Amino acid sequence: MGISSLLLAGAVGASAQWSYTENTDNKVSVVVNGYQKYQTMIGGGCSGAFGIACNQFGSVGLSPANQEIVTQTLFDENIGGLSVVRNDIGSSISSTDGSAFSILQTCPSTPSGPFNYTWDGKDTCQVQLTKTALKYNPDLFVYANAWSAPGCMKTVGTDYNGGLLCGVRGSNCSADWRQAYADYLVQYVKFYQQEGVDVSMLGWINEPDFNPITYASMESDGFQAKDFLEVLYPTAKAAFPNMSIACCDATGARQERTILYELQKAGGGDLFDVATWHNYQSNPERPFNSGGKQNLMTEWADGTGNWNAYWDVTGQLAYVLYTLKPVVPCTNMANSEGFQWALYMHNAFVNSDTAGYTHWWCAQNTTGDNALIRLSYDEYFISARLWAFASYFRFARPGSVRVDAQTSVEEVYVSAYINTNGTVAVPVVNAAHFAYELTVDLFGVNVTTATAYLTDNNHNVTMVEQFAINGSTFSCQVEPRAMKTFFLE
Ligand SMILES: *[C@@H]1O[C@H](CO)[C@@H](O)[C@H](O)[C@H]1NC(C)=O
Ligand SMILES: *[C@@H]1O[C@H](CO)[C@@H](O)[C@H](O)[C@H]1NC(C)=O
Ligand SMILES: *[C@@H]1O[C@H](CO)[C@@H](O)[C@H](O)[C@H]1NC(C)=O
Ligand SMILES: *[C@@H]1O[C@H](CO)[C@@H](O)[C@H](O)[C@H]1NC(C)=O
Ligand SMILES: *[C@@H]1O[C@H](CO)[C@@H](O)[C@H](O)[C@H]1NC(C)=O
Ligand SMILES: *[C@@H]1O[C@H](CO)[C@@H](O)[C@H](O)[C@H]1NC(C)=O
Ligand SMILES: *[C@@H]1O[C@H](CO)[C@@H](O)[C@H](O)[C@H]1NC(C)=O
Ligand SMILES: *[C@@H]1O[C@H](CO)[C@@H](O)[C@H](O)[C@H]1NC(C)=O
Fold first, then answer.
1. N or C end of the chain: which has fewer CB within 10 A?
2. For residue 246, what is the enclosing H or E element?
3. Shortest-distance Cα residue to atom 13 of ligand 2
4. Atom 14 (ligand 1): residue with closest C-alpha?
5. What is the pLDDT of residue 470?
6. d(CA 449, ligand 8 centre) in Å
7. How high is the pLDDT of residue 315?
8. What are phi and psi of 18, to 5 degrees?
């Protein structure tokens, strides 16, 4: 059989698997099956990298009282519900763009040292961000992520301008700096420990498939990732056995899967704990090849358009306009409205078993669209994107397990999560421009009451109804272009 007929057979087979029925009424039936379990959730989050955390803590005029309110709005279990903070392990020697400083300002001439690490206790306001977030969410998942190794450990001699870590295949350096880099990363975690903060996950590279030249960056394919992870993984586990190791924050889900295939080919499939990826250059779309390990979306934002705080008004797609983060042609632009983010998250959680979703910046002084909360002097403005996160993560808390949820119509998106104490979250997104009557049948859950929280253009995760569940079934309306989360107890 020729290749074209093989392809044709494949295409026919794939399209035949998808079917739909024409929908003549406004009813949707949903089946939640608590016996069919999928991924364990980590949660939603954001970052204060590149000095942006300082915006949240006074550098642009936000008063101490509002610094607390903004941080509480993001991380409180009953408001924004976030529980991941992604910190930037700085590699900069002389920062001009707000990049975080390296804890190794002067490098020894060889990897045998000595290493003179320094710590200012601030880490470009990321210590304050982390500690304040911890105050409102004691279960905070702290992701410490380096964009690059210090320049002295790389082929290019600088932390910016890409290049390879010396010691990985193809690096052709006079010395092998892999152990030095692993020790340096562990030292950063120790400095946080000294501040009373446990780092939950350690990452050693950012967007290794992309060389932006202007800011901290390091390149790596999956084979080179194996060459470093075989040093980092045992080093980090010896120092912090409970800390997860991430790989590899690629620019897109497909790009991440390519790295993972190579890592596995090189024999490194067990040298990481969580597959981390960004949503810029490709959507998740399908399960990850992570060998059963969790995957986490660790960075995405519109990044190019004007500030858009709406839930569902403009349907805006971003324009390409250079901000701090350069935009590559063909980048997968995020529509910036809350409703769209609700669907992005649904698709990742359901189609790709993604354990959580991390927006790019938390709060930023800006007129652009890179943050969940926009700051201007002492004012703050909350985007509806945060309400999309909250509609999932106020109710599907860290440690919850996604279970199967089937829906009878495509435009009503349903997922379901069982919390560690047996309560259940059922977030529903209705993309139709009319209300649907929803009937939910429950299997394998033990609940008696439902409370519904509505988010649309006029509601921000607002409690709207509470009712008893009759046996294992309940019915309820879902408003048009809305997200409604049912919390079942
Ligand atoms: C805050 O943002 C505004 C608007 O973008 C800008 O004009 C101002 O310079 C910024 N303030 C600081 C301190 O960066
Ligand atoms: C270590 O680095 C700090 C900051 O760069 C410097 O002030 C100090 O003199 C260095 N100590 C040694 C022993 O080199
Ligand atoms: C490796 O480095 C040596 C010494 O600097 C140089 O002569 C050689 O061309 C390099 N090889 C590659 C493949 O870059
Ligand atoms: C690892 O986690 C376990 C369970 O939470 C805890 O008992 C143990 O002390 C932790 N170990 C370290 C080194 O933090
Ligand atoms: C919802 O939040 C937005 C900011 O995202 C705010 O402007 C609006 O007043 C809030 N609406 C309600 C009903 O609380
Ligand atoms: C169960 O956990 C959820 C999510 O953390 C919480 O909101 C709820 O109050 C808990 N319920 C009980 C009965 O402990
Ligand atoms: C359901 O929960 C109730 C109260 O927590 C408990 O008494 C009952 O045994 C549970 N039923 C099942 C089937 O788990
Ligand atoms: C509860 O469900 C039963 C059948 O499952 C039905 O006969 C009854 O009318 C329902 N009650 C309410 C209040 O909906």
1. N
2. strand 244-250
3. 116
4. 60
5. 84
6. 15
7. 73
8. -100, 130
pLDDT computed for residue 317 by the predictor? 55
State in Å: Cα 229 to ligand 2 middle.
29
Tell me, in angstroms, the distance from the centre of ligand 3 to residue 283's CA. 38
Q: What is the pLDDT of residues 34-48, one digit of tens each?
A: 999 999 999 999 999
472 alpha carbon, closest ligand: 8
Nearest CA to ligand 1 atom 7: 366
pLDDT at 391: 98
Rounded Cα distance, 327 and 304, in Å: 8
Could you tell me the distance, in angstroms and rounded to a whole number, from the CA of residue 433 to the centre of ligand 6? 33
Q: Give residues (CB < 6 A) around ligand 5.
A: 309, 382, 384, 458-460
Task: Point out the ligand nearest to the CA of residue 108.
Answer: 2
Per the CB < 8 A criterion, the answer to whether 71 and 85 are in contact is: no
Q: What share of the chain is helix, strand, coil (3-state, %, to 5)?
A: 25, 30, 45
Q: Whose CA is nearest to atom 10 of ligand 8?
A: 470
